[in-house]
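One record is kept unedited as follows:
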Amino acid sequence: KLTGLALHPVITPELVQGRAHLKCRYSPRSPQPPGRYRVLWSRLSSAGKREQVHQETTPQTFSFVEMDGANLRLGDTVFCTVTAFRRGTPEQQSLPEDSKGFYAGIKFSPESLEIAEDGEEHVLTVLSTVPIACPGQDDSCKITLQLSTEDVGSQVPGPPDIALSACQVDLLPGPCSGSSCAAATVTVTAVTDFARDGNRVSRISAQPLAPRGLLWRAHTPRDVKVTVRDLPTGNCYSFTDPHIITFDGWRYDSYKIGTFLLCRSHSRPFEVHVRQRDCGGHRSATACNCGVAAR
């Protein structure tokens, strides 16, 4: 057997004659290269087993397979397995070496998020690990993804606990770098809902709009799971004649009549006004809340 060979097969995406391909590269560091390679391409089935999709014997130190939408589809995890042997002695083979699994399709990075109701923006990257082909020079040379959010796992379903900076993103074609051939970013923020509703889970989904060709037509990227950590929120009160309790717990009374600014945020457009009327008559100087306006 051919021992001591380290082929280290690696899968990278590449555009070949305007069509998306995967390339398996392997480089034996040996003073006497074996000269022949058997390359087996496989994909991971839904049952978690590998299914062979292509096999070839070649003298080259690389092998291509096309993402045709039939044998290999977007959403597949692809492997290449390489065995080396010499031209005249095919029975003397090296041990087969596997590449790492290559996910071919659109995915989010990171694949899950844990954020808090603190107003902080978190960057989420949407990327394609396969090249986007350009059949012409028109504006259709891109993949547009519709983004949506959904509340999951709550006992009482409600609106999602997250907000996105955009509802759509465009993946524009460009040269592949590593396993990214096109990328766009969107920010995710936890909704500050002033409710003590515990930690909630939402998910972000992406769906290609008007996909072109067989390759993109049936592709649904994996969702992103977003866990929102509930934070206690401050409360202030104005009640009865009126007693006021501020956010930091101070208590006092206000007997004035008129319209007043109860609270205002310096960091966002949030403001509350209250109107107080005379409700004590001649016997006492007492005011009562009779109206409120908020934005």
